[in-house]
Each structure stands twice: as C-alpha cells, then as structure tokens.
C-alpha cells in the first residue's frame, strides 16, 4: 500500500532536519574551539556510533514495565554551566508486539543536569572509527585540542512532536558508560519519562551514546610590535 503523500513529506522533513542537526553537532568543535570544556556535543544512536555489524547500536531503545518501547536517535550540543541546549532527533513509539503507535521528532528545550564521568581518550578507536581517514582524524583534529570522548549522564527536558496528535513533554536521560562510571549507571543507553502520565521507560534495551567535550584551542601568543620589528638575521638587509 503506497504511503500517503503527507506521511512521505513528514518523513522527508524528519530525515532532512535530523541530518542538519547531526552535522551541526559534529561540527561543534569549530564553534566551541575557544570555549572551556563546559561545552559538549553528543550523539544518541547516530553518526559514527551506528555499526552495520552491531544492530544493537542504533537506535537507542528504552522499555517500560508493560513492554512498550521508545526508539530514539539524535544529536546536539549543550553548555553544562548555562544549561543551554540545542538538540533534536527522531523517535518511534511501539507497543509490546512491535506495532508502531507513533512516530515523530523530539526537540530538547532544557538541560536539567549533567554529571560527567571523566574523559576516555581511546574511546573513538575502541569504537572502530577510522580516525586517520576521517575529519575527526588526529592529524586534522588533535585529541589534545579537539573533542574528547567523555562519559556522563545528561538529563534533558524535551518535546515530542508526533506526525499527528498533540505534542508531549518528557524527560530524557542519556547515559554514556565511559570514564569512572557509577555502578548503578553501568548500562549505556537512554531512559524516558512522559511528564503528563509519569509513564517511565526505565529499561535501557540497546543503543550507543557518546559525549564529546569541546576543549579550548591552544594558540601561540600574539607578537608585540617590538617583536615584529626585530629583523630576521638570515635575511639580507634591504637596500
């Protein structure tokens, strides 16, 4: 049965908007190169985290006590000090037997908290990212001054915007099990709580997530006018 035109348009809008968001997050190192490491980009079951040989990596799935699930993917960035956030993605709500109940997009409106577990410099290599041939390669983006993989727990207030029906407000927990991980948060993934009816999707079924701490760029000190005026002894004097 052909998909209705309105549904196709909505799916195209989701894919286009998500691609922009993902690209925005992966390019965050350029925007935040001169800021302290309070700034983070993050991926939720998207981008280089998705491995075709490991289907459990994407999407991230959270389940409630009745077996209903939310499948989510997305990306964004946030400032842990000011609590500002720009993030979005897609979601699919399914019943216990796998029927799709709702699809839509989610948009983060607030960072409620972020607890860092510390950095994990080797995490990208362990993930299997071909650093040498990618834009995130060490020659183009040194780990000492570029994004640093970091574990932690971020809690966001988000809006769920379905293809049809009213929007919902929810709390999304994103947990990356890298660094000094607390025992109670050793399972990586997401949890979701719908605020209106307090439905709690508290079981992390699958999905990879990662935070990338944006380190400040190290720059050489600017020359003073006196330093600039000193001639180079290797150069012949001008006539």
The portion of residues forming beta strands comes to 35-45%
Total domains: 1
Task: Give the overall pLDDT as a whole number.
Answer: 79
How many β strands by DSSP? Answer: 11
How helical, in percent, are the residues?
10-25%
Oligomer: single chain
Descriptive report:
- The chain has one domain (5-229).
- The protein is built from 4 helices and 11 strands; from the N terminus they run H-H-E-E-E-E-E-H-E-E-E-E-E-E-H.
- It has helices spanning 5-26, 28-31, 123-127, 225-229, and strands at residues 39-44, 60-63, 69-79, 85-94, 100-119, 148-162, 168-176, 189-194, 200-201, 203-206, 209-213.
- Strands 1-3-4-5-6-11 form a 6-stranded antiparallel barrel.
- A hairpin with a 5-residue loop joins strand 8 and strand 9.
- The longest helix has 22 residues, at 5-26.
Question: Concise description?
Answer:
With 239 residues, the protein is an alpha+beta fold.
Write the layout of secondary structure elements.
Blueprint: H1 5-26, H2 28-31, E1 39-44, E2 60-63, E3 69-79, E4 85-94, E5 100-119, H3 123-127, E6 148-162, E7 168-176, E8 189-194, E9 200-201, E10 203-206, E11 209-213, H4 225-229
Antiparallel strand pairs: 1-3, 1-11, 2-3, 2-10, 3-4, 4-5, 5-6, 6-7, 6-11, 7-8, 8-9
């Amino acid at each position: 049965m052909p998909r209705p035109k309105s549904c196709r348009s909505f799916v195209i809008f989701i894919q286009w908007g998500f691609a922009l968001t993902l690209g925005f997050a992966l390019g965050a190192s350029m925007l935040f190169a001169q800021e302290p490491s309070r700034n983070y980009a993050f991926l939720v079951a998207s981008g280089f985290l998705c491995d075709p040989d490991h289907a459990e990596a994407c999407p991230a799935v959270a389940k409630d006590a009745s077996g209903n699930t939310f499948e989510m993917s997305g990306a964004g960035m946030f400032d842990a000090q000011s609590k500002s956030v720009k993030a979005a993605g897609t979601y699919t709500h399914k019943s216990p037997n796998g029927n799709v109940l709702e699809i839509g997009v989610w948009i983060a409106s607030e960072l409620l908290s972020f607890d860092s577990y510390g950095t994990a410099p080797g995490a990208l290599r362990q993930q299997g990212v071909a650093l040498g041939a990618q834009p995130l390669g060490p020659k183009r983006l040194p780990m000492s001054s570029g994004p640093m993989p970091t574990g932690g727990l971020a809690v966001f207030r988000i809006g769920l915007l379905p293809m049809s029906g009213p929007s919902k407000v929810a709390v999304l927990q994103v947990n990356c099990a890298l660094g000094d991980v607390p025992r109670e948060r050793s399972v990586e993934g997401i949890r979701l709580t719908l605020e209106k009816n307090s439905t709690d999707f508290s079981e992390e079924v699958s999905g990879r997530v990662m935070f990338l701490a944006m380190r400040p760029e190290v720059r050489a000190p600017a020359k003073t006018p006196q330093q600039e005026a000193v001639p180079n002894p290797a150069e012949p004097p001008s006539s």
